[in-house]
Amino acid sequence: MARTGANAPLSTPTPATDHPALATPNVAAEPDLAASRVSHMEARTRFAPSPTGIQHIGGFRTALFSWLLTRHYGGQFIIRIEDTDTARTVEGAVDAVLEGFRWLGLDWDEGPDVGGPYGPYYQTQRRAIYLEYTEQLIASGHAYRCFCTPERLETVRMMQRQRGEPPRYDRHCRHLTSDEVAARVSAGEPYTVRLAVPYEGTTRVQDALRGVIVFENSTLDDRVLLKSDGLPTYHLAHLIDDHLMRITHVFRAEEWIPSAPLHVLIYEAFGWQPPIFVHVPDVLEGSGGKKLSKRHGAKSMQDLRAEGFLPEAVLNYMALLGWSYDDKTDVLSLDQIMKAFSIERVGVAGARYDEGRLLWFNGYYIRQLTPEALTERTLPFLERPQAEGGLPDSVARPLDREYTARVLRLEQERMKTLAEAPGMTEFFFTDAIEYPASLLIAKQMDATRTLDGLRRSEKLLSDLTSWEATAMEQPMRDLAAELNQKPGQLFTSVRVAVTGRTVSPPLFETMEVLGREVSLRRLREAIANLEAE
Ligand code: GLU
Questions:
Q1: Torsions phi, psi of 511, nearest 5?
Q2: Is 391:422 a contact under the CB 8 Å cutoff?
Q3: 324 CA distance to ligand 1 centroid (A)?
Q4: Ligand 1 centroid vs 51 CA: distance in angstroms?
Q5: How far apart are CA 73 and CA 65, in angstroms?
Q6: 48 ligand 1 Cβ < 6 A
Q7: Which pLDDT does position 33 carry in this prediction?
């Protein structure tokens, strides 16, 4: 879908309150913004994805704002599939969007799967509607048929480029006589239908965040409304649907601002009142100032889910990409966000995507989970095949729930994503652990002293009557003192012996969960390994 670049705003946006609404003869008065802000009762908003690729966090953030408005004020949230660009339609894209919503826990009142009173909710199923309204625009002189071939259009654009002019349609077909049009139509010549933009005057776009933006009509293009395949372009289709579906607030990406005057002109041509436009700020990639895109690492909901993000963390994070609660509160539940949401607190500055911050939120929400919830949510990550990031395939599934819960409780503090769990906890589940024997030797220690420490630890621990962490700690500290080792030195060798790594959850709690048998066996294996060195 081509997006216009030639029609830059004429004026810098100014607060709406400075602009008394202009009375335009053939259109209802502009919506009274101040009033609309406080009386959103029965708001109807929509998310209207084009299934041409994967919706990433930026698109879902915009959808979230729409959803929040209706859930805050009451009203309906609608999902509509804008699939008129059939050549670019990607199989599975609609399911991926709906699945993303379900995962986030965002519901919708009308949409492709649930239907509703204003359906169908796929634009390709609404062709007849668009054709009817296109005829209406042609009949009233607001649109016209264009028979120019793609080759001719390309030549025009090339010449414009050479002259340094912005590329746009030269209106070649705008004044064909009706006889000529009729003859060419009946001869079967393909045509598109274009908007007849007024040659003069200005068009005012009212944006809820930016106020009124004024465009000089002479800078606008006679854009295609209906393609030669009989399907509408975005400009026509979304607008007819928004009107017929009684959408009150249109939340969409700010890249649509340059097209907004065309939309206002079409609303005027039909004599319809435009909805309230909320052009939300872009989500920018982390490092540069560019808009976040798949190429810059933008993630879909499926990616985030597979990477072990919690939907509550993603929602919290997304809500703050352009909206703020106040200047300091970060952690907010969806319910709190919903209660507090207002358009007034949506900013116009681009919001930067920062994965580190998302991870911080995720770690926070993981720490809030009850042991049962943590287990429930992490089990699929542990149990999935090794090739997909799960525990080694040698570990028998299903895992023991109670044991897994005890393991995860130890790792909960450190976990940033659920997908990290298999790597972090593997030694709790596998029979054998592998590590180089040299890892057993702590800083400023040698093999002999290490062996001594391990042998004495094994003896001490196997003599204990209780296998609780609290029963191990003091005797082991005393042992370190007796061996003239720092506790850190002794504990490092024991830690490596039982876990195979130098970093783990607290040592004695780890051994408690691993159990007496496994811990002592691993200690003996470590001793044997070091002896063999
Ligand atoms: N189908 C459009 C897109 O995906 C929707 C824009 C809008 O919300 O109006 O960009």
A1: -70, -35
A2: yes
A3: 24
A4: 10
A5: 12
A6: yes
A7: 47
Per residue in 165-187, pLDDT (tens digit) is 999 999 999 999 999 999 999 99
- The DSSP bridge pattern shows strands 283-284 and 351-352 to be parallel
- Ligand 1 center from residue 57 Cα (angstroms): 15
Average pLDDT over residues 494-504: 97
Q: Does the 294-345+352-363 domain belong in CATH 3.40.190.10?
A: no
What phi, psi does 386 have (nearest 5°)? -55, -40
Say if ligand 1 is within 6 A of residue 82 CB: yes
Task: Reduce the DSSP state of residue 254 to 3 states and report it.
Answer: helix
pLDDT (tens digit per residue) in 405-449 = 999 999 999 999 999 999 999 999 999 999 999 999 999 999 999
Residues with a known catalytic role: 294
* pLDDT digit string, tens, across residues 47-93: 999 999 889 999 999 999 999 999 999 999 999 999 999 999 999 99
DSSP strand pairing (43-47 vs 75-79)? parallel
Spatial neighbors of 422 by CB under 8 A, at least 6 apart, are: 381, 382, 389, 390, 391
Could you tell me the pLDDT band of residue 388, with boundaries at 50, 70 and 90?
A: very high
The mean per-residue pLDDT over the stretch 485-505 comes to: 97
DSSP 20: P
Q: Is the CB of 50 under 6 A from ligand 1?
A: yes
C-beta of 49 in contact with ligand 1 (< 6 A): yes
CATH 1.10.10.350: does it fit domain 437-531?
yes
Could you state, in order of their start, the residue ranges of all structural domains in the chain?
294-345+352-363, 373-429, 437-531
